Amino acid sequence: MKAVTWQGKRNISVENVPDPTIQEPTDAIVRITSTAICGSDLHLYEVLGPYMHKGDILGHEPMGIVEEVGSGITNLKVGDRVVIPFNISCGYCFMCTRGLQSQCETTQVHSKGSGASLFGFSELYGSVPGGQAEFLRVPFADYGAVKVGAELPDERYLYLSDILPTAWQGVQYADVPKDGVLTVYGLGPVGQFAARIGRHLGHRVIAVEPVPERREMAKRHGIETLDFTKDTAEELRSMTDGRGPDAIVDAVGMEAHGSPVGAFAQNAVGVLPDKMAQKIMETGGSDRMSVLHSAVDAVRRGGTISLSGVYGGMASPMPLMTMFDKQIQFRMGQCNVRSWTDELLPIVEDPSDPLGVMDLMTHEVSIDEAPEAYKHFQKKTDGTIKVVLKPQGVTL
């Protein structure tokens, strides 16, 4: 089969690799009809290379048709249409039964001290082959795979694999008061949905984003927008009676713009041998912190900051005195996808499309075009906001 593979920093290629096979009774093999490039994939493309191996199959936002099921599968059959959550969870362990599927004790990567295994996301999360491929082996498919209808287009359902529940969890964790103001930093795919979800739940939403095309997309959904500058925190205070927003979702993470020290650290780590680079990342500060520091400055006293963006530095500096003085609450973590899919499924199937899932994809390309699509997404060129790959070919 064809698959998108990691070959080095900013170097991916589409290769022919062996088809996956059933390995456990609760496995399923899924023929992938749509699979998206995520902002987290760019971390592998740019920053987390020390944890990658040449030939690793990328991708953790897939959906498709069940081709084969293991002997232990009771609720899936060949021909079912399914969305695959990015975290691999068993459904029966201590963590899963408490709605913390991203911490699944059955699939935790103990060798790295990490949470649940993830599709296509480096040795930090199990080196499990990902979903940017023609076929995917899905462990614990009896619990993880989300069955969906057969009539609506893939893009109605595809984002249930990651970015929609990630945004939903981010807003829930932000705990916006009933008449409160939510600010979203970053209008990539997760930020777009977080802003729309905030509006859907009745909040005033102000989004901060340096790329004009992304601000324009958000404005179509009733979102107020600001450019990201050194004066952003002061602008937000001026728009909120001098206090700042009640809650902030950081949908950017480790590769924020305007962080020269963090950028230098990430570039320096990128040229070191893998083991040495891993050690530095696991003990030092290697994140670009401009967005998070701006959020700490901007949020009102007693407010909440919710981190949906991924951070990878173990000792990245934080303004603890300010955080303590302002009584800021933080919530964060990988999304517990299966905790939210049942709630989100009827929303994405609503004919009115209240979250605008059909207004996110900017590029639909064949799997062979993935390397070029990664370049545009990483550089934010060609108006790229969300790329969907079609491993079975693009239907014209």
Automatic annotation (TrEMBL):
Cofactor(s) the protein needs: Zn(2+)
Molecular function terms from GO: oxidoreductase activity; zinc ion binding
Keyword terms, alphabetized: Metal-binding, Oxidoreductase, Zinc
Residue span, Alcohol dehydrogenase-like N-terminal domain: 25-141
Matches recorded under SUPFAM superfamilies: GroES-like, NAD(P)-binding Rossmann-fold domains
Stretches assigned to the Alcohol dehydrogenase-like C-terminal domain: 189-255
Family matches, as PROSITE patterns: ADH_ZINC (PS00059)
Family per similarity comment: Belongs to the zinc-containing alcohol dehydrogenase family.
UniProt protein name: Glutathione-dependent formaldehyde dehydrogenase
Organism annotation: Arthrobacter pityocampae
